[in-house]
Specification:
single chain, alpha+beta, 4 domains, five-stranded antiparallel sheet, 10 helices, 22% helix, ATP binding, non-specific serine/threonine protein kinase, ATP-binding, nucleotide-binding
Length: 569
């Protein structure tokens, strides 16, 4: 069995219970993987009752799920977890094909059971059931707590925290959770330390960040320097441990599991680190690393100061080779300061170009910074294309490029900040889509159409965007749309109306057929993409999911057939 996402097509595989025992229509009791790939969150597996989280397995540790040791490889099956650029999924395969097993989502008593057929008794034997107890119920004790089914009461505040409402806590009203004993201050973040907890289910990863290439020491340094980071851990416990995952904000849905190997390091103030809790070992860290970090930082600054002249000279030579354009140049120091040294908590997302960060300049202006990744699928040519192209474009429905930074290997684009993210954030999310009423959707489509008209007809250059899609339509504070991401755009000169390329660039589901198959593109290619976006904003579904419920025919093909039938008649 395989549960998860195909990131290339958007296909989600999950289990859904019937509405009831007599109605096989899909109900609201579901089981599947959830995460946000754009933000590099740690994937988690949830059972939901409608929109409400009901149970969580805990993140994959390399051996099993941190909150469900029973889902590790057993006498019946081998379990595995795959997370790469193409897909993320959990799977288990039978070791013995002669053994008959099944998984049942029971929408009546709200359990997920795994059963095996026992031939001598000719009956199904249950070998795994979740939730197992009250500590398995999602966030049973509230935030910043752990749940210990062996204790009475089962709910306990984490070290350094106290009940938010003690009067409720005393009558077993735990849902409001716990708050810090002392209010944290970012000014004293480097004086905090981390307490090591062993045998815990890792917190809900909705507000997490995963970096599989970092070790535990690097993970700690990242968390220590970010005052919103509350905990960190290895993402893989095999061997001596590897990978890094950090959590921001309140920690949710933690429980004690004495047979688990996972360690979790939770942030506390230095004054709170000396208390002793049974079953938990405190490891005081931070002072040595803090001192070493300062020394390294001073050394880095000295080296940078010495090489500043050489870097500026090299940068001047590089930029002198480019065409002349009127665009402000920002220093790397200014952008690094605006984004808190490209801090994780300022990261807005990531695309083919590289990560995008939120920042604030010294004058208070908020900006969005696109940072060219060295491993980017796009490269320096796309960077130059966007710089030279957008600098010459001015329209209310095109994103405004404020400047760029080219220093050494660092190449950055600085844009106006769009507080309402992108169009796909609203139209594809069931909750957010309710905020986008029909008149506003129509206004957004009209705005995008005006932007396209400017690119195709009214600007001094005829431009084909080639990657028009909902995620490239940004929304300002008044929900006005602005077309962005011109890295793949092409310009036409004179009487040229179409072009041809062997390098197909764009997003499947939005590309016109003649472009996707033959490399032919024109302004009509953008019009095709715009039409797909119109369907998406009306239906609330991604183009790759347009599918007739009873037939293997896409919506577009069905419409085409009907039009043909009308013409024939």
């Amino acid at each position: 069995m395989k549960l998860g996402w195909d990131l290339r097509t958007g296909l989600k595989r999950r289990l859904t219970a019937w509405k009831n025992w007599d109605d096989p229509c899909p109900g609201n009791f579901t089981y599947g993987i959830e995460f946000r790939p754009q933000l590099h969150t740690f994937p988690d597996v949830y059972i939901r009752r409608g929109d409400t989280k009901f149970y969580r397995t805990g993140s994959w540790t390399g051996i099993s799920f941190s909150g469900s040791p029973s889902l590790r490889s057993s006498v019946f099956f081998d379990s595995g977890f795959v997370y790469n650029d193409d897909e993320v999924y959990f799977s288990y395969n039978l070791k013995n094909k002669s053994v008959i097993t099944r998984m049942v989502m029971n929408g009546t008593d709200f359990t997920n059971q795994q059963l095996a057929w026992f031939e001598p008794e000719r009956s199904w034997q249950v070998y795994s059931t979740v939730p197992r107890d009250q500590c398995d119920v999602y966030d049973f004790c509230g935030v910043n707590t752990n749940c210990n089914i062996s204790e009475s009461p089962a709910c306990q505040c984490l070290r350094g925290f106290k009940p938010k409402y003690p009067e409720k806590w005393n009558i077993e009203g735990y849902s409001d959770g716990c708050v810090r004993d002392n209010t944290q201050s970012c000014e004293h973040k480097n004086k905090d330390v981390f307490v090591k907890f062993s045998g815990l289910k890792l917190p809900d990863s909705s507000l997490s960040w995963l970096a599989g290439q970092l070790n535990l020491e690097e993970c700690e340094a990242i968390c220590l320097n970010n005052c919103t980071c509350m905990a960190y851990a290895n993402s893989d416990v095999r061997g001596n441990g590897s990978g890094c995952v950090v959590w921001f904000g309140d920690l949710m849905d933690i429980r004690i599991l004495h047979n688990d190997r996972q360690n979790l390091f939770i942030r506390v103030s230095n004054s709170e680190s000396g208390r002793d809790d049974s079953g938990v070992r405190a490891v005081i860290v931070g002072a040595v690393i803090g001192g070493v970090s300062v020394i390294l930082l001073l050394g880095y600054c000295i080296c940078r100061s010495g090489s500043k002249g050489r870097t500026s000279e090299a940068t001047t030579k590089d930029t002198a080779k480019e065409k002349d354009f009127e665009l402000p140049l920002f220093s790397l120091a200014a952008i690094s300061g605006a984004t808190d040294n490209f801090a994780v908590y300022n990261k807005l997302g990531e695309g083919g170009f590289g990560p995008v960060y939120k920042g604030k300049l010294e004058d208070g202006q908020e900006i969005a910074v696109k940072r060219l990744s060295l491993s980017s699928r796009q490269g320096i040519n796309e960077f130059k294309n966007e710089v030279l192209l957008i600098a010459k474009l001015q329209h209310q429905n095109l994103v405004k490029l404020l400047g760029c930074c080219i220093q050494g290997e660092e190449k950055l684009l600085i844009y106006e900040y769009m507080p309402n993210k992108s169009l796909d954030f609203f139209i594809f999310d069931e909750g957010q889509s309710k905020l986008l009423e029909w008149p506003k959707r129509f206004e957004i489509l009209c705005g995008v159409a005006r932007g396209l008209q400017y690119l195709h007809q009214d600007s001094r250059l005829r431009i084909v965007h080639r990657d028009l899609k909902a995620s490239n339509i940004l929304l300002d504070n008044k929900m006005n749309p602005k077309i962005s991401d011109f890295g793949m755009a092409k310009t036409f000169g004179g009487d040229q109306t179409e072009g041809n390329t062997n390098r197909i660039a764009g997003t499947h589901g939005y590309m016109a057929p003649e472009y996707a198959f033959n490399g032919l593109f024109s302004t009509k290619s953008d019009v095709f993409s715009f039409g797909i976006m119109v369907l998406e904003i009306i239906s609330g579904k991604r183009s790759i999911r347009f599918h007739h419920e009873n037939h293997n025919i896409t919506t577009g093909m069905e419409i085409a057939k009907r039009r043909k039938a009308i013409r024939t008649d």
